Structures are given as structure tokens and as C-alpha cells.
Amino acid sequence: MFRSRSWFGANWNKPKNRLSLEHMKYLYSVLEKNMTVSEHNRGLLVETLRSIAEILIWGDQHDSSVFDFFLEKNMLSYFIHIMRQKNGGPGFVCVQLLQTLNILFENIRNETSLYYLLSNNQVNSIIVHKFDFSDEDVMGYYILFLKTLSLKLNKHTIHFFYNEHTNDFPLYTEAIKFFNHPESMVRIAVRTISLNVYRVQNTNMLQFIRDRTAAPYFSNLVWFIGNHILELDACVRNDTDHQSQSRLSNLVAEHLDHLHYINDIFCLEIDDLNAVLTEHLLHKLFVPLYIFSLTPAPSLSIATVTQNLAAVLNKVVEIEDIQEVNNPRVSVVTGFFLLAMVFLVIKHPPLVQTLAWVIFNADNSIFKEGLVKLLDTDRKQFVSLGFAEPQESLERALETTLSATNSDTNISSHEEDPTTVSALPEHSELNRTDEEKEKMKGVDDQSVTNRPFLDTVISAMDCADNDYLALLALCLIYAVVENSGVDREWLEKTLNSSSSCGTKCKTLLVEKLLKIAYMSSTPASRIRLVTLELNAILIQRFTRSSNSKYDLSEGQHAMLTESRYHSMNVVKFYYKSEDIFLDLFEDEYNEMSKSALNVEFLCADSTILLPPTGTPLTGIMFTRRLPCGDVEKARRAIRVFLYLRRLCHTIFGEIESLLPLTNQHNCVDIDDVLDLNNSDLIACTIIMKDGQKQRRFLVIDVQQLILVEPDLKRLGWGIAKIVGFLQDTEVGGDKDDTRCLHLTISRGGATRNQSPLLSAKLVFDDYIRCMAAKQRLTKGRSKVRQKKMLQIAQILEIKEPSAEGSNAGIATSGRITLREHRPLFSTANRVPGFAAALRLGSMPSAGVSRVQIGNRSSLNSSGDGRNSPSSSSYGRHTPRRDTEGSLSSSTSRPGTRDSSPRTPRPRSEEIPLEDLRRSASPGAISRSSASSSWRPATPSKLSMEKPGHEEGNGKVDGQEDKLVSNTSEETSFIAGERKSKKSSTIQTV
Fold first, then answer.
1. Which of 238-267 are b and which e, b meaning 16 or more Cβ less than 10 Å from the residue's Cβ?
2. Do 528 and 612 form a contact (C-beta atoms < 8 A)?
3. Residues near 119 by Cβ (< 8 Å), separated by ≥ 6?
4. Helix (H, G, I), strand (E, B), or coil: what is residue 684?
5. What is the pLDDT of residues 795-805, one digit of tens each?
6. How far is it, in rounded angstroms, from Cα 764 to Cα 775?
7. pLDDT class for 471, splitting at 50, 70, 90?
């Protein structure tokens, strides 16, 4: 009854420790008893294969006897036996088998174990097995297995895969057969495998690849890339409404992958392999498809009629350019784009030098004569140019080539194949001697009067309607002149030669570029910003002389200057009419200054292949499309002016002194440690949107709003926790609570439309402080914007800016007219927040009170003590001169709050804060004056004041207009410019 062990199940006598030699022996017995795959045991076999890989990986690191047993029993042969069966659902088992092998080879670390696994040629038997590749899982795990093996290739392991005696290399030859697989991940894996193979420095193996596989593989690869390009061009032609951007983007990305793969092969510097690849690219793709498309399309109907007539008359009629009838074309737009990408990605000198020569010097005869002009004089073999399908598929070509046993026969057949004759000269134009160059000089001189390809590039720079072609032509010119593989001496000589119209090529190019700049400056221009930016880069490139100076003729100089003034006049219109002009101006300047244009990234953007559009709904970047609406027109006008201004400064050697409008080096950053002695502080509670409360002290600088918390370790110091620019601040009162303000600090630059930097409610201790804070924030914002508008007026050379709207307050004399600053809180003899360090958090109020210390009259001979230069500033301030050159000081005025009667107030907590400045360490030296004054941070209440107040005009109820005037003076903005960072201070309002 107990004769069969299966009665107890499959785990009979199974070792408890799954990571052990005993378990491996058990699995071997299971494998041995299930050699034939069936529906009943395939699940058991899958689990067995998985467990074997797991134990082998463990044994590789812990117990070598496991591997010894695996090799002793030749268990890999069992894998092959199972793999070759065709019944019992082998696909299911094959997936697990390939997965097991991939995991095994990926995790083996011991070289000896790896050598044992690769011995006996069993791995090659698995590679050449004809799997069912219609199964996606089988295909995926198979190509992953080959990729894992290729990562193990080196000068030692190559002998396990490449057999020198039989000229057999299945790992490589089987992998490249999937170079055009429909699945992109498979194609990527094939490229990785081939590159891993080429990197192995084995002469015999590389010779085998050069003689047996290079020609068929590269010819089929070029054909595949060319067909992909035709698909890309069809997408460009049929997508004028920008509805297929996603598909076009994928096609461009795929083509970029092809170019980078080709460049990776060139970078390995395998001369024989590079020569074959260069030959196929030039003769079968770049010249016949890319450059051929730059010539005007011939009249195909006439050529067809002539051929038909000749056939009827049984006569042979030679038709010039007969190849044009059959050779496919892409659009000129696509041709420019593809050539630009080639020069941007590939730097292999023989290829890019030859291609540049064809573009700049060749004529239509190149299609009949091939690249004869670049060939060595002793070479007489002719290779025709043409984009045509190879006569054999890659798989068939490999079978034919690999079946040849006689190397001489192989070489002979190699020479007879017109696609494999080396068309690249031994000495290209780049490598020619001086005598050879002299011989070629006559040929070059004959071709300078007929350069159809160069003429096409230059004519494309005309922007009468739009810059559709011009942008791509500029990309191509930039890519050629910046390519390190193109000989500089040859390029300069070519650019200084005569063009078809008799003018030097460089002069003609500069005139075209300057014309683009001039047309960009007109209000109705349809030239995109990215075109102007690239145009400015090329102007600098072509006008820069050897001594790093710029050489322009008088007419060119005048044209560039005129372009600048035209763009400035356009901006002046928006200066007077656009309410948000200041924000637009700063945003455009910041965006322009972030980074230089990267042309390679630009050409990776598929949207430049489509006609220029003006709608933002396409998702195209603003600089790469036309403006939509008045705001975007203003943005474009500003950016054009800034580009041309920067270009003129560079070429004319001028120094920029007015931009940027905000000097970031003088600004406070978050977490800066600041000295707050002699600073006006207003205590407040910040209530966030989520209800979180924070106790902070409000400080208003000349340009910034700063919310600080005290540094309890050092008396008089604070830490900036929230910092924002006054010009980006919006403040409003609360109708339900006179002590509250609603504060919003927007983000500047391109992030302006995103969530604000701070949006919260500020609660003050009383309505007096609330009113003072609102007035100072409102006036501070107004003054900052007025000052910056004056700076823009100086940039735009506006002598008398308008005093209306946003420009109110700008003096006609060219400076902002500001009243002498008089601080709201005159506290020359008081220290803000002295008691806070002693009992922080112990008092119910966090406001800053006045502390009477000593007799003020004894400390201030001039009266109320407000004449100290640092009496209204942070410790970062030093005595400075006002706009007229005298030291800024405040004097007491009759009718101010300091002269009004005061009622005694109980002491509330105060904060110890010193010189508001950046401090790298607690021991940093303060920038404040040694004779810092003691000042309170809040005003005394008037003895007769009433609780009500008006926020609209800043007047306390019951007070006369005189008091309102004095209050306005107390919160006025400080005139004058900031000092340099070394002695800079933060000026409170």
C-alpha cells in the first residue's frame, strides 16, 4: 500500500534546509525523474529550476561543494534537454529556464564558477536554440539573457563565446538579428550587447566582426534608420495642427538613440569598424537622403515622360539626375533638423569633416561622382550614392557570410559587393598633406561658384514670413561650426571664400544674422525668442577675431545699434501702458539670466519641426512659439530688448551697470543670523492656513519683509524665518478684527503663478501696531516699485517718466523724490526686547514695550535722540549719505508722537536682538556701529486717542490732518542706495 512515495506528496525525503548541498541533491533527483515535460509535471519543473538557481547563488558565496556537484552531474545538460522538447507546454518551462539562467549568470561572483558554467559550449547551444519568439515573455527573457552574458565579456571570457577555429560567435550574431525588432526595449538591448562586444580588445574577434558581419549589419542598420526617418518626415508633413506631438516626440527620441549608438561605436576608436560604418552612413544615408533633400525637387513628370518615350522608341536616352526620380526625399525642414542632430551628436572627424565639405563646397555632381573629390588619387573604385534597401536581409546575409570557409573567398566576395567598398579615403580633407591640398585647391575654386546646398542654408535664413526654416538653418550652422571633429583651419578658409553672389560666406552670414536681429526688433515680427537667442550666439561667433575682440564693419555696427533702439522703442510703449510691466520686466530678465541656450537640448525638442504656433494650448514653451495676447507680446518685446542689449554690450565692450534691478547679494536669506540692535520691530502672531500659530517679529527693510524669531543664546540677535520682497507683498485688513492683517507674499520669476511663498493672517497686540505695519508694508511696496521703475526708465533712456499710474512719484529730474526718513518708532535711548531674554514666554503679551533708561535729554543734546545715523536701522547699517550727499539723519519735529503726552505702560516682554546681519558663527564680528543706541520698537499711545481708526488713509480717529501728515512722515521710506555687501545694512521703514 505504501509502495509509491507520491502517495505522501512531492516533499517526501525533502531536506529541511533549502540552502544546502543535500537540497541540491534532492533537486537533482527530481530533475532526473522528470526528464520529459508534461502537463502534470511542468509546475514541479519550474519550481525545481528556480530552486536550483537559488542554491547555486548561495553556494557560490558560501559552499563550493554545491557548484562541484552541479558540474559533476552536468545538470546544465538537463536544462538543454528540457528546452528542446516540443510537448507538454515547453514555452512555460522555457520562460522559467531563461529566467533561471539569467539570475544565475547575473549573480555569480566567483570567476572559477563562471568558467565552469561557460565550459563545454553548452551556453552557446542555448543561445542558438530556436525559441518561440512569438511569445513576448520568451523574447524578453532571451534577449535579457544575452545582455547578461555580454556584461561578462572580457579578454578572458571571450574565448568561451568566440571560436577562432570555426569563426563562430553566436552571442553577437544571434543578438544583432533583432536590431529592428518592433519592441524598443529589445532594440536597446541589442545595441548594448553589440557595444559590450566591441569593447573587448581581441584582435581576432574584431577582425571576424569587420570581415564577416560589419557590412551586412551596418547596411541593414542604415536602411532601418532611413525608413524611420521617412516615417518621421511623414509625421511632420501631416501634423501642421500640432495634434500628433506625442508620436513625433517619440520618433525624434528614437532617432536620437540611433545617433548616440552610432557615436558610441565611433568613440570606441576601432579603425576598421569605423571605416565601414562611415562608408555606409555617407553613401547610403547622410548624402543621398539628408543632403539630397536640400536641393530643389526636380520635375518628375518630364523625366517620366522622357523614359516612357525612350522605351517606346527602343532607344537608350541618358537622363541627367536620373537617380532623383527614384531616390526618396524628406522636407527641407526635416533635412536641416537631421543634419543638425548629426553634427551635434557625432564628433568622428572623417565623417563630420566629409559631410561638412559636401554641405559647404559640393554641387549636384556629387550624386553622380560620389565622393570622388575626397578619395585618394590612387583609388579608382567607385561607389554610387543612393538610399536603397539591401539586397539581403541581415539574417540571410549572416548565414551566407558565415557559411564561407575560405577567408580568401570571403574577401573576394566582400570586394564585389558595392555596398562594402570603402568609400572613405585613406587621407580625407582633414588628413591631407599641404601638396595634396594644393592639388585640391583648383577643385575647390571651381565649386565655390556653385554651392546649392550652402545656398539653400543661407536662403533659409530669410524671415520674411516667419522663422520656421531659419531656426533649423541656424541650428545646423551652429552645429557645424561648434563640432570638434571639423577642422578649424579648413572651416575658416571656407567661410572666407566667395559665395555664389561674390561676397565672402562669412560676411554674407553675418549680414543675414544681423537682418534677423533687426527684424526681431519690429513690433509685428514673427521671429521666436529662441531664434533670436541662437542668432545672437552666432553673431558673436562669426564676428569674434583671434584676439577675442569683435570685428564689425561700420554698416554692421549701425544695423546692430539700430536694432537695439527699435526694440527699446517697442518696450517704451508697454512701459507706459502695462500695469504689471515691472513684474514682467524682472521675470524676463531672470529667465534670460538663468542659463545659456543648449542647442543640443533644443534639437531634441520635436516641436521645432512643426510650423510656429501662437497658442499656449499646445504646451510649447513661450520662447519656442509666437506670443498670444497683449501680456505675452509685452514679454516678448522685453526679452528681445534684453537679448539685443546684452549682445551690444558684449560686442561693443560695454559694462552692464543697471541690471539686475535687485542685487541679490545685499538681500537677507532664510536662516540668516541677524543683529537687530537699533531696529524697529513689531511683534505679531502668524496664523497659517492650517491653523498653526507662530510668534514672530516683523521687520521691514528697504526691499524685503522679514519675519524673525529671537536667538535666545545671544542678546539682540534674531534668525530670519520668512523672507519676501516687498514688491511681491499684498496686505489687507480684516473687517472683523482691527488687530489683524491678511498677508500674501508671492513668488517671483517664473514661479509667480504658483502657490504663494506665504499666505497667512498676522495678529498684532493692538490696532496701533496693526495700522503701523500696514502703512509701512503698503508704502514700502510702493517705494520699491517706484525705485525700480526709475531704474527701468534709465535703461530705456526715458528722460522724463510719466508720473501717472504705476509711475507716480518718479521725479522728472531722473531720481525718485523721497522725503527725509523719519522712523515711526523714535527710540534712541531704548533697547528693543531687553526683558525678553530673561522671561521669554512668561508674559501674556509678546509685544515690544518701551523701557525708559536714564534721562533722554542727557543723552541727546539735540532733543529727542532721533538724530543718530543708526537710530532707524538694523545694526547692519552704517551712517550713509542721502541722495544729496549729506549724512541721513532725522530731527525732531513739533507735533510728533514723541512730543505728545504719554501715559505710563506696564513693561511687557521684549526681545534681545542685535545687529541684523548674516553671521557664519556666534563669534562673528558685528557690522553695526559700536555706539548702538537703545530704542523702543513701538510708539506710545496718545493719552487722548480713541479706539477707532481709519485704515484707508492711516488716520487715527479724533486726530487732525496734521497728525496724519506726521504719521505719514514717520512711516516714510528711506531714500538712497544700499551700501555694498561688506558694509551693507538693512534699512527699516
1. ebeebeebeebbebbeebbebbebbeebbe
2. yes
3. 160
4. strand
5. 999 886 554 44
6. 14
7. very high
